[in-house]
Amino acid sequence: MRPEQWQRFKRASKREAGADVPVALIVDSPWIPGHVGVSHMEYFVDPAVWLESNLRVMREFPEVTMFPSWWVEYGMAIEPSAFGNRIHFHAGKTPDQTPTMPRVEDVDLLSPVNPQTDGLMPFALERYRKQKDAIFRAGYTIPVVAARGPLCIASFLRGVTPLMMDIADGREETHRLLSLTTRCVIDWLAAQAAAIGGSVEGILVLDDIAGFLSGRAYREWAHPYLKQICDAFPADWVKVYHNDANVRPFLAELPDTGFDVLNWSDKIGVAEAQAKTQGRMTLMGNVAPLELGVRGTAEMVAEAARRVKADSGDKGLILSVGGGVSPGMPAENIRALAGA
What is the DSSP letter of 52? Predict the structure, then answer.
């Protein structure tokens, strides 16, 4: 994103008086390679292809804040790779991975992650170091660093169903696992910020797995760890939380984590989300990403965007889709969202 876009996003995130409603979209490797016509493998391994692909997207949609902007990621592979998961790369889609923690007791065999040496993390850090000057010279900034959240990483290691069973059983080892993955998130975000430098003023944490929990389970197994992440970074930084699963059971408690912005599911209306968060979070959404973003017409997207703005009262909102940009979302629908 451009520096002025970041300032606009930041004012909206902090709910400053007079802040307007920016348009921002979470864009990453599920969507970018297909849109610009390169393979995922090229996008991941060729620095020139990565740089040009991101430049092309930002120049094609100058009215949209692409978020978090210049995100070096390999699908969802970076954090689990640092813990030793086997990563499977493919030419035409983002990588998948195999859990390597068959028993929750195996948490005591895991060591803390070192972002400078472990898995794909050092490759991503080197990409930032080598490309940041070209990005700045082109007139853009890198204001936000991103990481998968602690429950998300734990689910990569254990598998989603085993992790949910561990939580249902109240396994103490699961708290040790979540403490370890939370430390990984903090250290990984800090390492990215150090590699990029002083332009960084925000974090993005993505953790849909918390959306599988009841309100009571959220309070024990998610909230303390999310708050720990927010507390680890300066209070004036912009802190964005992505969860497009079911956040309804704990919407009212999410502002207490310290996140400024919630990117949430279109299945929960903006008026309900505003009422439950009581104006203590900026809401980033809420046009349906698949039904409308990918499968709808431009007119349908524009109408939905106008309805979201109206339901929000044109305040406390960053207009977006209810999640990230899904593979196949056409350019005309992005322009329709911005035009609204």
Answer: H
Contact 182, 223 (CB under 8 A): no
Tell me which residue has tokens 């390169």. Answer: 38
Q: How big is the chain, counted in residues? A: 340
Find the largest Cα–Cα distance for the chain.
54
**Locus of tokens 């859990």:** 99
Residue with tokens 């996003």: 9
Q: What are the phi and psi torsion angles at 123 (to 5°)?
A: -70, -40
Q: Which two tokens stand for residue 291?
A: 């039904």
Task: Work out the number of other CB atoms within 10 angstroms of the CB of residue 2.
Answer: 16
15 CB neighbour count, 10 Å cutoff: 15
* Tens-digit pLDDT profile for residues 143-184: 999 999 999 999 999 999 999 999 999 999 999 999 999 999
Task: Note the pTM of the prediction, 2 decimals.
Answer: 0.97
Q: How many CB atoms sit inside 10 A of residue 252's CB? A: 14
Q: Is 17 exposed, middle or buried (0-12, 13-18, 19+ CB in 10 A)?
A: exposed
Count CB-CB contacts under 10 A for residue 100. Answer: 15
Q: In Å, how far from its chain's centre is CA 24?
A: 12
Task: Return d(Cα 77, Cα 99) in angstroms, integer.
Answer: 11
Domain residue spans in the chain?
A: 3-339
Instruction: Measure Cα distances from 141 to 30, 133, 254 in Å.
Output: 22, 10, 29
Bridge partner residues of 282 (DSSP):
261
Give pLDDT tens digits for 200-225: 999 999 999 999 999 999 999 999 99
CATH code: domain 3-339 is 3.20.20.210
Instruction: Put residue 219 in one of left, alpha, beta given phi > 0 → left and psi -120 to 50 → alpha.
Output: alpha
Q: For residues 99 and 158, is the Cβ–Cβ distance under 8 A?
A: yes
